TrEMBL record:
GO molecular function annotations of the record: single-stranded DNA 3'-5' DNA exonuclease activity; single-stranded DNA binding
Protein name from the UniProt record: Replication factor A C-terminal domain-containing protein
Cross-referenced InterPro entries: MEIOB
Gene Ontology annotations of biological process type: resolution of meiotic recombination intermediates
Amino acid sequence: SVPHLEVMDQSPTCLYIQMWDAEMGYRADSWKPRETVLFIADVKLNWNDFKKCMTGTVTARTIITENPDIADAEDLREHARTAPTVPSAILDQLAINFPEPSAINSVMSCQSVWSRATNAESAESFTALVFAAVTELDLDGQMSHTLSKCQHCQQTVDDTVGLCMNSECLVSSGVERPLSQRAYDLRVTLADHTGSLPGCRLTSPAAAQALNCSPEDFDCLSLDAKTTLKWKLLLRRCAARLVVLPATRDRNSPLISVLALDKVALPDYAARTPMY
């Protein structure tokens, strides 16, 4: 098989690079994930139908410099040490770093979002403003709807030991002390007249704002109070601002995160909901 690299910078996507050169493949054996910084020049780029993205190929003209002694390289190394690599964590990071959800103004129907997310020619993330009703929201079931997250890597913390279980986190290596915070872990289904978007991840800030209840306060509620809280949002018409990671060959289902969920009046809902 042809050796390949998966390289990243400070953008949310990665680049796959194939190395046909045996000597280059030998050099790559000494490169350390999240530690080695590469300056790559003259890599050949091609569209990969299987991965649905651009991929690179090392050629005779390609020059790769390992760990260049420049400030940008050190900044990138620091970023790589804690940057998420799992798709769900990448989506969470996109949501956290999104400057202002109100800037999402590209109105789409549920059908249009789902079609683009499942049949996309590109794996690049996109945003959408959807006017829909919340048709599924389980706040009073048997499952837990809050969890503890590591403040360094945003991964789940095991409450029984109080430590981040992410082996790549700086907490696990002893570089940083453990810090965690409570967060919502909610899924909702959004639906309009064109279709539905199942399993949307409602971000913790969006959930806290939409429910007017912090995760810490939610943990203290009785079952009846959680049921009452659920019906304040369930079946209500809302404006949902989304960030979407389309499905890929490696991930059959798209990942959809709700950055903001605001109830809207019927006239505004009717005027802004697209036909298709």
